[in-house]
Write a structure and sequence with these properties.
The complex is a heterodimer. Chain A is 68% helix and 0% strand. Chain A has helices at residues 12-23, 27-38, 41-57, 68-87, 96-104, 119-124, 127-135, 139-150, 155-162, 166-191. Mean pLDDT of chain A is 85; it is low at 105-111. The chains are: A mainly alpha, B mainly alpha. Bound molecules: zinc ion. Chain A: This is Sigma-70 family RNA polymerase sigma factor.
Chain lengths: 193, 92
């Protein structure tokens, strides 16, 4: 997936310019991504600072004119997995590759969840309901929804950010949305929509 | 293109795909990942299938709700400055 990395030799001025013009504008998106992964302000701050410091340290591997946002998201996600996830007391993760394989194999019907969630009930939902349904998803499913729906990355960019094949991106987003619909259908029922 | 995707495309072109397969296409369409011909296959199916029309509307609405209603976190005021300071102090 990785093309041969061509090292640049940016001057200090160029580096400063890249930071100011290409990296800093994504601060809000990165902080929100970090927060949705950690649910902790201090952890999010650390994670985002860490991301910018790494980006700066490896700035010569960044190709001017390419997608800085995707590059920064990839660094943040890797830091989260390598450092933050270890710290957190999350129980052992299910192997989603296996789950995804199961749901994609021929002849397995996906559980139908759309039947009891209606368009008008989604329209009537409050932001908190959408947010807590999203928060209740496992981090891998939450991540694809954030990247796709909130940040508008393409499947190809998501594959690069997450280091997974594009087919896995596709099936993970389908699965994530079905899970989200199940959660929201639960809300809708409890609210009497 | 993989064999699976090739077979899928033939099914869409000839109108032999089932609703579950059109749902996959719906996701590609709302995520802007589809080709014009795929969109055409979906439109053709939607003329015949109300179930998939409902599914498309629900997916569109859900995506819109996530974009417009999910809560955004305010960035701490000092974060940008603290990052710039740290960068200024370090040598890459
Ligand atoms: Zn249909």
């Amino acid at each position: 997936m990785e093309e041969a990395i061509e090292k640049n030799n940016y001057t200090d001025q160029e580096k400063q310019q890249l930071v100011d013009m290409e990296f800093m504008p994504h601060l809000r998106a990165l902080y929100n991504f970090a927060y949705k992964l950690t649910y902790d302000e201090d952890d999010s701050k650390d994670l985002v600072q860490d991301t910018y410091m790494k980006a700066y340290r490896f700035i010569n591997s960044f190709q001017k004119g390419t997608n800085a946002k995707a590059w920064l998201f990839r660094i943040l996600k890797n830091s989260f997995i390598n450092e933050f996830r270890k710290k957190s007391k999350q129980p052992a993760q299910v192997d989603y590759q296996e789950v995804e394989g199961y749901y994609n194999s021929e002849g397995t019907e996906k559980p139908s969840s759309t039947t009891d969630l209606r368009v008008d009930s989604v329209k009537n939902m409050m932001g908190d309901e959408i947010t807590s349904a999203l928060n209740s998803l496992d981090v891998d499913f939450r991540t694809v929804i954030i990247l796709c729906d909130l940040e508008g990355f393409t499947y190809d960019e998501m594959a690069k950010i997450l280091d997974i094949p594009i087919g896995t991106v596709r099936s993970r987003i389908h699965r994530a949305r079905n899970l989200l619909k199940e959660k929201l259908a639960g809300y809708a029922a409890s609210m009497g929509y | 293109m993989g064999l699976k995707q090739y077979v899928q495309n033939v099914k869409f072109r000839t109108g032999m795909a089932n609703c579950r397969e059109y749902i996959d296409l719906i996701y590609d369409v709302i995520d802007n990942q589809s080709s014009p011909s795929q969109e055409q296959y979906l439109r053709r199916h939607l003329k015949l299938c109300l179930k998939c029309v409902d599914a498309l509307n629900l997916e569109k609405e859900l995506k819109k709700a996530i974009q417009l209603k999910s809560v955004h976190q305010e960035v701490p005021k000092d974060l940008a400055d603290s990052i710039k300071n740290k960068i200024a102090k370090s040598t890459p």
